[in-house]
Description:
Elements: H1 3-7, H2 12-21, H3 25-39, H4 45-52, H5 56-73
Helix pairs in contact: 3-5, 4-5
Amino acid sequence: MSLEKFTREKLWPILVEVVHASVMYPSRKAYTRDIILPEKADITPTELATRLNMPLGEALVVLYELAEERKNLA
């Protein structure tokens, strides 16, 4: 399932809210943006979750938000 398909789910806003409440969220997002994506731009949510030892839901939100930020910069 693509990241965009997840955003159409009814519970997506709740998942985003829960992820944003995590203390580790800002640092994991920054690390993903600055370190992981430059070395592997096509990383999957499952790979990211495994690599950073975080929940899959958090990986989905992080990758989706970073993809949206890149779109807005282009």
